[in-house]
Amino acid sequence: MQPAHETQIATLRRDGFVVVPSFLPGDALEALRRISLSQLAARVPPLELEADLKYPGAPTSPDAAGGQTVRRLLDAYGRDPVFARWGVAPGIGDWMHAYFGEEVLMSRVHHNCLMTKHPRYGSMTGWHRDIRYWSFEREDLVSVWMALGEETSDNGGLWFVPRSHAMTFGEEQFDAAKFFRLDHAGNDEIVSSAVSPRLAPGDAVFFHCNVLHSAGQNRSDTVKLSLVYTYHGLSNAPKPGTRSASKSEVRLA
Ligand SMILES: O=C(O)CCC(=O)C(=O)O
Prior knowledge:
The protein has about 250 residues and is of the alpha+beta class. It is built from seven helices and twelve strands.
């Protein structure tokens, strides 16, 4: 294990997330951006639309103005060999092996996407823990969010509540869709400590499935692009019969 990994892993264990600067080399960044923009322009399926999610700021239906705005290019791993390569890159595999201390698998069920945030019709994402998407033996998964352009609070960059992955919350603090309720006493104080790390193109943020995070709308005039994958240890199996177990996973070398 490299010393940088040790420090980053310690930061993730403490804060629930860690920024890894210059994670993508320049040629990979250029290739990932080019493929993303070309697949977005060609609307290569499978796609998820903002209108499908209906988050605040999203068009109300696919027929409304901006209703065809893409939210996610789904199945990043299956859509291009360069995307696939970065899902199982040694820089991720080594890091995850050091973190989980065992064999590592990448899920193809959720995330595994090129996440976009468009000006105007890109929606905001409320406070949540990503565990809302998952059904695993243990709540221990780590996502890698690779910024293919600059990400700031102005263009819809992520906000995190440091150390919230280790906080214990009651079910009543979340709504039916498992978003953290800002109308619940005390929750607003918890999110008041949130930070929005500025990401340069090629930076990555690694984050735990229980860290509270959110993202605003994109107030710039350029679409924001991020490649996102999620990993877990071999002993932490998806629960049989759930969506998390519905697709074969990718074992990292
Ligand atoms: O880009 C965003 O709006 C946030 C995305 C996110 O947190 C998620 O999909 O879980």
